[in-house]
Specification:
Radius of gyration: 34 Å
Structural class: mainly beta
CATH topology of one domain: Methylamine Dehydrogenase, Chain H
Strand content: 35-45%
Oligomer: single chain
Mean pLDDT: 86
Shape: globular
CATH superfamily of one domain: YVTN repeat-like/Quinoprotein amine dehydrogenase
Number of strands: 67
Strand order of the largest sheet: 61-62-63-64-65-66-67
């Protein structure tokens, strides 16, 4: 037996240990690892000094530690189409076409936002680091301006005129020039004067530009039909002359000393010498790489390569060079992201919840049945997009490719219904199914909603296991069928099913005994949707939309949705019309919840026909929102966050009905049977793999770690179950509780109209004006329906600067004849950016080698006639990089022996002296 002093000593030690544990716990916050590197949308940047990696996951950037494989922080943004990168001094930058955001990497706080929509239409380009390392952003604003900001101060540093949107930009190492891509046109600005130094033409759209270390050369990378078009081109900065065209399908490229580093689609890298010239293979021999979700290579902006092998479940990070070391990233928590799933059905008492997919999405979509009372996942399923619990709660009806009834105790499939050839309902899918009130029958609708092969309604007798009724056959697909209150009538929603939209154009009420039609209502426009019958069995919801024309023509139209409550006994009778697309009902059907706009949830009283209360919500407005039968919780999918610092996740969320607090989230994970439940109070429950995602973080820092002690201390299935089954007390009334709540102003999170002027006026009108201008100058032209002007013959007619400039917008000109027009060297700058010209004559004009240098990037040029000009052999040698050049007609005084560089590069070129 222990002595009293010894017992006191042990008790004191335990007390101190408890205080220390509680103190440590107070310094930690729960941080769920809900993202996965194998599920990333893109990989943006890697900092080798800190070992931090930036990836994009839908509308968020996620920061990773490659040493531990743990996510450290999430940075939500305003769109899924953005890029991210690290900056100096602990900064992270996110950029989209509408906004630039500068963040504190450590705590995620927003330092500065630049709203690009204030500057007309914008497109984002590269970030430039100048002025002692301060970050500078360049974007095209409107069709004719490029603007430069200092991101730390928000100050506008400069503006330049341009002729199109900027798709890429880079500052020269000496900070004298700004190089930018605008479509397939490259532009070199002098930063001191703000004037264009040079322009050049790329064979395809420029998406990346890079200078070498001393700025004497730069390269451009294009995108598009890479299987026959060289993507990487090296240029001389002083003359903008193409030095090298690399016939490889590179994803990315950069200078490494006197070589070009090429990143290929399947992870290989190569150093290409500047003196290595190869002829591009024929179009049909260019490789076409097929990407695989199981074996993916990502390249960061600084040329690190992330390799994800989902089959082997390995992730590795490879350095930029061929002999760079490889970093193996632990995959304990970082492989697969949380899966998108929706609440599909609650059991009558609220103990069971079925979640699954929305009917769309990839095969293998995780689904599940949750035991909310125990706070755990009961069964892990796949591809369930509809279901219904039996009134006795011992069985559940599931639908994927077939209908099956599963025992909730054993998981055994008790009955199944499959379509077999010869069945009248063989064509089409099961589109809806539900138990009768007694639970002895299942009402089923079928139909081929996509191809329009008809449909019908079935009654499945569960006692015999056979189809008892096969009636109400229709030439249309039946998308939904539901019973009225006494199950004497069936209300069905039908679609023509011939346009792939599954839009409803008819609601029909039939006699459940005979199958005869009792009434029908037609809708003028296919495209409406229907919800289910309400719990009272007397209403069905129909959602329609109309296009609202915006005041600004450039903003087009928006859709305004209205959901009508139609009486089953009289389909022409409107009980109410509510804004939004989806209604969900409380237990007795006296209150309908609806989301009229993003971020707003309203409650409608069906007895008084009025909206009781509105509040903010984190749930998405799309279908998949349900009242828990206890009425104190609402289940849905958390949508984009109300505030930019909040978390958005692929989970099923439980909101408290009265307050809107997110009480709990249910996570499923791709590629595994792992699951996790997290509550607002910080308690969790999950599978072993799911619990490994419950990591701790020191608030305001990047100190994230996984520890079994921390996870064990917050794993409380009982607390989780209690949070998931909250119910309104028996002596309380939901309507009365909602009326007590004070009304608050709810921010409008709906998209707002933006002033987006036309880029270059109306193209049809502009083409007509150019055609008239060319004809007035004496030109003969030809036009194609989709290509604009394709042929221009101006020989012998003088041309003006303005007329030459208009050729860029005339269409896809492939025949251009400008002999004896008086065109000058300076005017050839506008000709050299025409990318489709194949045959061109310039003879009889006062042009020199300086003007010919403007044509060195006319990549489609096949035949060029420049006799009777002041062109020399030195000027002709500048054309040696044109890949399709077949014939040159040149002055007779040219010494062909001086054309060795041209003939070496283009040995098949035909030279005609005239």
């Amino acid at each position: 037996m222990l002595s009293w002093n010894r017992t006191l000593e042990i008790s004191l030690i335990l007390f101190i240990a408890t205080l220390a544990r509680n103190s440590c716990a107070a310094e930690q916050e729960l941080f769920i690892q809900q993202w996965g590197l194998a599920s990333a949308d893109r990989v943006d940047d890697y900092d080798s000094e800190s070992g931090h990696l930036l990836t994009r996951h839908q509308a968020s950037a996620v920061l990773w530690d490659v040493k531990t494989g743990l996510a450290l922080r999430q940075y939500p943004f305003n769109t899924r189409n953005f890029s991210a990168r690290f900056l100096q001094n602990g900064r992270v930058l996110l950029k989209s076409s509408e906004m630039v955001r500068l963040l504190n990497k450590q705590n995620g706080e927003v330092i500065r936002d630049i709203d690009l929509t204030r500057y007309k239409y914008s497109n984002y380009s590269n970030i430039l680091l100048i002025n002692n390392g301060q970050p500078v952003f360049v974007a095209s604003c409107g069709p004719e301006t490029i603007r430069v900001w200092n991101l730390e101060t928000g100050e506008t540093l400069n503006e330049f005129p341009t002729e199109g949107e900027i798709s890429a930009a880079k500052l020269s190492p000496d900070q004298q020039f700004l190089l930018a891509g605008s479509g397939n046109i490259g532009i070199l600005w002098n930063l001191k004067t703000g004037k264009v130094q040079q322009r050049f033409c790329s064979p395809i759209r420029i998406r990346t530009v890079e200078f070498n270390d001393d700025g004497s050369r730069f390269l451009t990378i294009g995108s598009g039909e890479f299987w026959y078009t060289p993507r990487v081109i090296v240029w001389e900065t002083a003359t903008v002359f193409p030095l090298l065209s690399i016939p490889r399908t590179a994803l990315d490229a950069d200078f490494v000393n006197d070589e070009i580093l090429l990143n290929y689609p399947q992870g290989k890298v190569e150093l290409w010498p500047l003196d290595r010239h190869e002829k591009a293979p024929p179009k049909e021999k260019w490789p076409t790489y097929q990407s695989s979700t199981d074996n993916r290579w990502w390249v960061t902006r600084n040329h690190w390569r992330l390799h994800v092998d989902s089959t082997q479940k390995t992730i590795s990070l490879h350095g930029p060079l061929p002999d760079s070391p490889t970093i193996e990233i632990p995959t304990q928590t970082s492989l697969f992201a949380a899966a998108y799933h929706l609440p599909l059905a609650f059991s009558p008492s609220g103990r069971w919840l079925l979640t699954g997919k929305s009917g769309w999405g990839n095969p293998g979509q995780p689904s599940a049945i949750w035991d909310l009372k125990l706070g755990e996942l009961k069964y892990h399923l796949k591809n369930i997009d509809y279901g219904s619990f039996h009134p006795t709660e011992d069985k559940v009806l599931l639908r994927d490719n077939e209908l099956r009834i599963m025992d909730l105790t054993s998981g055994e499939v008790l009955q199944s219904l499959q379509r077999e050839k010869g069945d009248s309902y063989f064509e089409g899918a099961f589109t809806s199914a539900q138990f009768s009130k007694a639970g002895k029958h299942v009402l089923i609708s079928v139909g081929d909603w996509y191809d329009g092969n008809g449909g019908g309604i079935l009654i499945w007798n569960l006692q015999t296991g056979k189809i008892e009724r096969d009636y109400a056959r229709s030439s249309k697909a039946v998308i939904y069928a539901g019973w009225n209150s006494d199950e004497s009538k069936i209300v069905a929603a039908l679609t023509p099913g011939n346009d792939g939209s599954a839009g409803i154009d008819e609601i029909r009420v039939i006699d459940a005994r005979t199958g005869g039609s009792l009434q029908t209502r037609m809708f003028p426009d296919s495209g409406i949707g229907v919800g289910g019958v309400n719990p009272s069995g007397n209403l069905i919801t129909a959602t329609s939309y109309k296009l609202i024309r915006n005041k600004l023509p450039a903003n087009g139209s928006t859709m305004q949705y209205t959901t009508s409550l139609l009486a089953i006994d009289d389909l022409e009778q409107h009980r109410a019309d509510l804004p939004g697309q989806h209604l969900f009902w409380n237990r007795n059907g006296s209150i309908a919840g609806y989301i009229p706009s993003r971020g707003k949830l309203s409650f409608f009283d069906l007895e008084e026909n009025e909206t009781l209360y509105s509040r903010a919500t984190s749930l998405s407005k799309w279908p998949g929102v349900l009242f828990h039968p206890g009425q104190l919780l609402i289940a849905g999918s958390p949508g984009p966050p109300r505030q930019s610092v909040e978390t958005v996740s692929d989970s099923v969320g439980f909101e408290q009905t009265l307050t809107g607090d997110l009480e709990a989230e249910l996570f499923l994970f791709y590629g595994s049977d792992d699951w996790l439940i997290k509550t607002k109070s910080g308690f969790v429950n999950g599978s072993p793999g799911g619990l490994r995602r419950a990591t701790s973080r020191v608030p305001g820092t990047l100190q994230v770690s996984y520890g079994a002690d921390f996870t064990d201390s917050i794993t409380r299935p009982q607390a989780v179950g209690k949070a998931l089954t909250q119910s309104l007390a028996d002596d309380l009334n939901l309507k009365a509780e909602l009326r007590k709540l004070p009304q608050h102003d709810i921010p409008n999170l709906a998209p707002t109209s933006k002033a987006k002027p036309q880029k270059y006026d109306d193209p049809t009108k502009r083409l007509k004006e150019i055609s008239e201008q060319l004809k007035a100058a004496g030109a003969k032209i030809k036009q194609a329906q989709f290509s604009g002007i394709t042929y221009v013959h101006l020989e012998g007619h003088p041309v003006t600067d303005d007329l030459i400039k208009q050729l860029r917008w005339a269409g896809n000109i492939d025949r251009l004849y400008l002999a004896e027009t008086g065109i000058t060297d300076q005017q050839l700058d506008e000709i050299g950016i025409l990318k489709d010209v194949k045959r061109m004559s310039l003879w009889g004009n006062p042009i020199t080698d300086a003007g010919l240098s403007e044509l060195t990037a006319m990549w489609s040029l096949e035949v060029l006639d420049i006799h009777d000009t002041r062109i020399t052999a030195a000027g002709l040698n500048q054309l040696r990089m044109l890949p399709d050049l077949k014939t040159l007609i040149i002055p007779a005084n040219i010494n062909v022996n001086e054309l060795a560089p041209l003939k070496t590069q283009r040995p098949d070129l035909e030279l005609l002296l005239r």
